[in-house]
Design goal:
single chain; 15 helices; disordered C terminus
Length: 301
Amino acid sequence: MSISAVAAARAAHWLSTAWRDCPGDAVTAVDALALARICCLLDPDSAQVLHDLPGMLAQCATPAWSAADLLSGLIAAGTALCVPGTLALSAAEYVQLVGELRSEAEGANGVLVHLALHGGDPDALPKGPIADAPVDVGLLCSGRREDVARLLSLIETTTAFGSIKRSFGQPLAAMLEGAAMAALRAYDLPLAMRLLRSRVYVDGSRSLGLATAFDFLRLCQCDDGSFGDFDTALAQMAARGERHGTCRIKLPVTWQALWTMAELEDPSFRLGRDAFAGVEALRLSERLRDADEGTDRVVQA
């Protein structure tokens, strides 16, 4: 059993208990569904959490699909479509909206939409602009967070989140690794993890830096199975009267940590492709109708 699979099993256990502390929260419902799906991808023995979660989610309002990160939204929708009823209906409506807007989606978001609509098939991606997008290494050196985000989006776009091999040259890989280490030292986990994933998309070779980063993330898993130490941020949220702080902060960090660990540990695993593998290209009107009728003809995720 891989280290990532063990981590996923622990995270699935945390999810099944943590959700009891934030029932009815529509914002965290999407991340909860996405985490459940990722746990099952990495550890098939965690399938029970997918069986239990829809019933737990039935206590909340319609998940806030549009408030979620696009990747978590698409993965969560694929999970929800497996369960006939109101949850599947709301997911189908979200997927329909995404499908209607797919021609306007650009960059990394456009790639994610295409992968979701075509069952994780990178060959279905449009050629031309995506394959030919230039990658400016200088963006990593500007010191501006928005420039770094732009560079990472270009890498995610041109490699289809690691599903397509493209040569970038060693300097970029070394620079991404160094930037990831700096982000880890600052405990900026979301940025560090995105940098690490981009590093393996650019160059999949092993290194001491990647091994060290993997160990850092592994040790960020708490005893309860979640990832990250955010006691200060959680205390501030509680002081402001904000509810469900633990789930709102830790759910997205946890599924991103599992995503990153799995891609660092197993070069053959790519979440942007594998989360949608085997999913039939989305036929929006049929899915929406089936969900509305409460049938079980929705496509299995």
